[in-house]
Fold this sequence. Notes:
The complex is a heterodimer of chains A (189) and B (256). With 189 residues, chain A is mainly alpha-helical. Chain A contains 9 helices and no strands. The chains are: A mainly alpha (189), B mainly alpha (256). Chains A and B meet through helix 2, helix 3, helix 6 and helix 7 of A and helix 3, helix 5 and helix 12 of B.
Amino acid sequence: MKPPQTSQSDLLLSIKAGRPEAYRELYGQHRSDFLRWASKRFDLDQDELTDVFQDAVVAFYTAIVEERITSLESSPAAYLFGIARKMLLKKSSLHKRTNLVAEVDDSMIEQVDLKLYQKMEADHQSQLIRQAIDQLGSSCQKLIRLFYFHRYSTEAIKERMGYNSSDVVRSQKLKCIKQLRKIVTKRNT
Amino acid sequence: MSNQPISEADKELIERYLLKRLKKGEAEQVATRMTEEAFAREVKWQQQFLDVVKSQSQQDIKKELQQMENKLQGASATESPARSLRPFWLLAAAVLLILVSLWFFYPRTPTTDDLFAMYYQPYPNELVKVERSTPKISAQQQTFIHYQSEEFEAALEGFDQWLIDSPQSDARFYKAITLMSLDRTTEAIPILESIAAQQGHRFRQAAKWYSALAYLQTDQAAKAKVLLEQLSAAPKGSFNRKAAKELLAKLMEGNQ
């Protein structure tokens, strides 16, 4: 059986337009189907499967916001199942390989980075940056995440965070980054 | 190689380069300037910054999905009491099996529990600046450290103590959110309703949003719709106006 096909609708557009709920919807809409699909193929318990599926959603969402995936050749479910399958194959030594290749097309997900949450502790400087971000106010932290990770436009951030104009968002972003650099420099000296 | 300091314009150019937002002709400019030590150093700094933001954001998403999963598992656990399999139940099980099969092959309308899990996330801390590196942390900061770390039991104790000292403070709103995060939604509702009724309260719109979610979780969809309609009709740029419209549309879809 192929992974269930759900409507592609305007997933990419809605993520670009600034909807953080998009990944929650991806998870909510495809979780049950994924668990049914994966539990027949991998000898892992539900907690392990949901853990992998969460990582797959994170990886898929990241690939979209980073524009590694710029158009969908298939349904979001096919991508999610493909990514999760790759992760599961690494994890499980008891998987059943039969028919897996026909179900998902690996070439679609070549651009997806499966290494998650790893770069943060890479070096001393990165740790300083992380600590400095933690020291910023919650508005700055939110703005930084929305702009630099979720890649929202200043217009989308204005809507999301209730600023008066995109110019205010831009100037607030500059202030946050200046403050961040100041904290890092102070910690470096 | 030049060692000139980097200008603000250079920093913005590098930012556009790393975010793949370069304008026409800027790619060549970046390629040429990469040989400059200061420029290359700034590229490295910004790349490190982006990597950290990426890791933190990915962890945030993972946490949200884990919370969503916990709520989904909690909901399914409370919905399946043990019963003996009398003939009626066998028949009911057969009907259910058919319905489940149909559900599997047709697009599924999310339940109110699904919608709650999709949309619920604790409101960010906007009350107290938390600096963990500060040598002396106040009780209020400690409460928000618990809140932000999702240690909601400890956060609730902190908010209760806080409200003994100042019963009408904005900590009421965060106490309600904490209660919702602990699945004590019925206790959160009266607090949220009271804030939502206060003209000019800084968390009034947010309280309406969370009340709507709380009603969804407690099977009061009609009440949720009223609030979502109010939020959707609020002026452009108002808190969660867009999300309220979407959620309302999903609820209406579920009613059809």
